[in-house]
Amino acid sequence: MIGSPNAANASFAGATPRTTAQQAPTPPFRLLRFHGKAWPLASEALRGWIEDQAGPRTIAAVPRAPAIVVLGGGVQGAAPPRRPDPDLRLAADRVWHAARLYHAGKARRIVLSGGNGTVEMSEALAMRQFLEALGVPRSAMLLEEGSSTTRENAAHVAAWLRGDGIREIILVTSALHMPRARAVFEAEGLKVHPAPTDFEVIDMPLGIDRVLPDTRALDGSYRAFKEVVARWL
Question: Which end of the chain is more exposed for a tag (fewer CB within 10 A), N or C?
Fold first, then answer.
């Protein structure tokens, strides 16, 4: 599959910030420099390298834990009268995946983390409305509505959970975001079981659309570079 990491590559999720005496992991940056970030094959290589470190791809492989934590970014709040209901965005798989984990008995509580964004309704509240439509009872959900970054997600949620004596979670976010998000939550002292979703890179036949540069590949490369750079800051 395009994007599978070399066995010698360091684990992105488990890596620590490097010193001048250490050598950084070796994602396919050379491929990107040579062919350009808008080339689909190069973009897939980098995104695939990150996603392959995200965690288990099946619900059965996710262990049970006291709580599921779902990160915002997949749903935007309602903005009546023009948009009376929440808008499901490209990463809305996060919310659907959380519902599936809950119905599979993986946890009895779901923490929804996400602030207001660009509309009055918070992402957490919008996610709750979606989850209720998917059969998750409101009593099982807690809303964290004060965060706007991954670090704030982790700090606020960890403080809440520590107050209830919870130090182990199932973390739900997009596969591309998972290695960085997992590291941030672990830095807050939580034991994290990753439950990634929204995988972008899959096995596909080689066609002309994967050879010619396009804006979708450029966007994918930008998002992947964001994850890599932010992990080291």
Answer: C
